[in-house]
What we know:
The complex is a heterotrimer.
Chain A: E1 3-4, E2 11-12, H1 25-46, H2 58-74, H3 78-94, H4 99-118, E3 131-135, E4 138-141, H5 142-168, H6 171-180, H7 185-215, H8 222-253, H9 270-293
Antiparallel strand pairs in A: 1-2, 3-4
Helix pairs in contact in A: 1-7, 2-5, 2-6, 2-9, 3-5, 4-5, 6-7
Chain B: E1 4-14, E2 20-30, E3 34-39, H1 45-52, E4 60-65, E5 68-69, H2 72-75, H3 78-87, E6 88-91, H4 95-98, H5 104-114, H6 119-132, H7 148-160, E7 166-170, H8 178-193, E8 197-202, H9 205-211, E9 214-218, E10 224-228, H10 230-234, H11 237-242, E11 247-253, E12 256-262
Parallel strand pairs in B: 3-8, 3-9, 6-7, 7-8
Antiparallel strand pairs in B: 1-2, 1-4, 4-5, 9-10, 11-12
Helix pairs in contact in B: 5-6, 5-7
Chain C: H1 15-40, H2 44-58, E1 63-64, E2 70-71, H3 76-83, H4 85-102, H5 111-134, H6 140-167, H7 169-172, H8 187-220, H9 233-247, H10 264-271, H11 276-282, H12 300-330
Amino acid sequence: MSAPCPCCQADIAPAVHRRGGGRSLARKTADSVGHAVTDVLQNEELAARPGLLQGLDPRVKLLTLLLFAVAASLVHSVWLLVALIALTMALAAASLVGVGSFARRVWASAGLLAFLVALPSALSWFTPGQVVVSLGPLSFTEPGLMGVATLVARVAAAAGFAILVIWTMRWTDLLRALSAMHMPDVVVATLAMTHRQILTLLRTVEQIHLARESRTLTRGTTRENRAWVTERMAFVMRKSMKTADDVYDAMLSRGFTGAMPSLVRLRTRPRDWMWAAASVALCVAIVIADRAVGP
Amino acid sequence: MRETDFVLEGVGHEYRAGTPALAAIDLSIGCGQHVAVVGANGSGKSTLLKILDGLVFPSSGEITAFGAPLTEVALEDPAFRRDFRSRVGFVFQEADVQLFCSDVRDELAFGPLQLGLPEDEVRRRVQEVAGQLGLEKLLDRPPYSLSGGEKKRVAIASVVTMESHVLLLDEPATALDPRSQVWLLDVLEAWKREGRTVVMATHDLSVAAEAADRLVVLSEDHTLVADGTPDEVLAQRELLLAVNLIHEHTHRHESASHRHAHAHGPGTDPDQAHGHGHD
Amino acid sequence: MDIVAMHIPDGYLGPQTYVVLWIVMIPIWVVAARKVKRTLKTKQIPLLALGAAFSFVIMMFNVPVLGGSTGHAVGATLIAIVLGPWAAVIAVSIALVIQALLFGDGGITAIAANCFNMAVVIPFVGYYLYRLVAGDAPSSSRRVVSSGVAAYVAIVAGAICAGFEFGIQPYIAHTASGQALYAPYKLDVAVPAMALEHLLFFGWVEAIVTMGVVAALARTEPALLETKPAAKPLRWLWAGIGVLILFTPIGALAPGTAWGEWGGEELDSLVGYVPTNLEKLGGLWKAGMPDYATPGVSNTLLGYLIAAVVGTVLVVGVTWGVGALLARGRGDDDDAASRSTAPTVPTG
């Protein structure tokens, strides 16, 4: 039961200890949305630093980093995977993006989850074999643990290359690279617009949630919060569709015919070719070495 | 030289059956005129501009642009479309809607490139316009990272590079800080000297009075109720009250109280609370 | 940033799986792009971009479920209901690509797999189930309920596909000592785990979000939910078959032989003798894929799976062929996927 406070008419419910207190729903979403926006803006800053990868032609960079990610998916030996992880670290260092934050990002976004998800599979119940570690009733087998290690190493290596792509490329350059790789105009144009719209929508969503946070004194019941969240989503959806109409009109009025032209021309330099050759050679060497070492 | 750019006869528009946006407008816009279309929110100003730009087509009546009928079918012809779009530029109310390219340079180049101009010419125009509007340092930045005022300048620049003869502006002064408003008025003056036609939609009477040589008033039921010079139109106080462009209220000064009417200063939302002084 | 439960990062799927899914997805994308271009024309770009952005943003909302717990939704069924399933394929694919390439969530080699699960399976299952349950000219409340049911089933279907993709890894690639090289859990763990996770939790989140938004839209912008006249009865069948096909991998989990389908040898071991006529007829037909095993593939389970896929494709292919022949006779228009664009909102 709540009663209006006589001086300010605000509705104040008696303090209720909720399970899993912490931040309110509105705050949680506002925070994660805020982080996403800051991440994107920070990306631009990282991609502008004068490091090794930033100086490469976007097409070459994208293709070679993808090549490395594919190599990571082909390799079976844990040790070679660890070598690939070391390579990602070295590239991160050479690209001046901060090895510490790079490592943290790889671990937090991919490594940790892989470890937690895969660990139970190392139990003898799942993967029979020679028991290596015993913790009370739980026994972990050798093939089981090796499987976990392989998975975590592979996930970390692949994630590392992906994050290097993201942290060393401006989004616009990424789109130019995709366009140069003959991705259809429509797709590239839509990706570009989507990116723009996402940022606008994210800001709107963040503001909606912060506004709610600042006006709310009580936590609200689950049902109320749910109704609010879904209603807000519908609002955002309506607003998005209206914006789509307006943006389309704006494009039409500037003579839009279907393609997104650009004045920027990509050019490759000798260093791009050297890098490409080195990467291809390294990937081939790693895969051959892996086959030689044997499963 | 041609005298009129646009002729509208009985033009009306409905978005969906039963949702009228404009009702039977008769209007002609002469070459080189600066016209302000004023009316309360919802009176149909934006719709009128969109009809002038061939983005929306009238449900009733006819519109002619540069001597030729402006219809959906006509715009399907690529040559006509290119010609029309190069002659008419539209600056939207929200700059965000208009900025969809990856960086400012591409934004400025988008229009001319779509019109098929050679790259050298496009580059030249981009540099020139960027210089005119103080955007040189922003050319490589993505539009979403700009401030509100910068976005507005880029939006206007993106239309200026098309070197259109007619410029349609939807609420150009809303949400601009005082310095930017002065800048906007300067831009409008320059366009006047260059002989460009400007049609501006606004609910802000002071901007309209300063920048336009003709005022057209739309009522809340979407009809055209007044058309004349700013002085003529602004003198019709009853009319302006009736269409909700100005309001009256009573207030007190020490011992006396009086009624007076006023409009709102530039860049404000008429629905917000306000204060004002007396002259 | 938290991600949705179904996103597959890089490294869990071996190349045999992810490459196959790329090969599957490319024609699907091409077809979707063509269909969308036909109905939306140049307007497709801003509309799809908005759909994609919205899909992306929906994945970030924290949705309260019970007590203090919250979950994330995918929203693919919602997009399919509003934009149509083909446009949803493109919109959700773009959202996923951006998640991977801009925010680093979800893998890059795994993009095709994620798109298959979330941008193809969910929208199609969701859309057709919605149409099926909502029927002709439904009331608002019926729309809301159908959208919830459709979203729930669709996301479970998508989850099962993801579970299947995870679960076949140990069979495809492992060392001699039995160590898994990619995702370590077999089908009998992966599929139930994914299914249960979504049946018990994420499915409800999806249903809540979809129903809530559809309800709000029905109140404020009902035109967005309008669909073309109802599906013909054949669609019943397709929808049902579609759902069943998706659930076939579960059959791989059941040990032993289905009751009544014993062959000669099994009867012998079960009851001690084989009826004489059975013995005569048993050798008559040499099946192309005896015992549901694929000739040349020694791993029995993998063989079983390949046989299942081939079998399904054949059955569907023949049925579709017959259906097409019949339909041509009646002159049906089978394209319910084309939708009108959203009406312009007046700006005044």
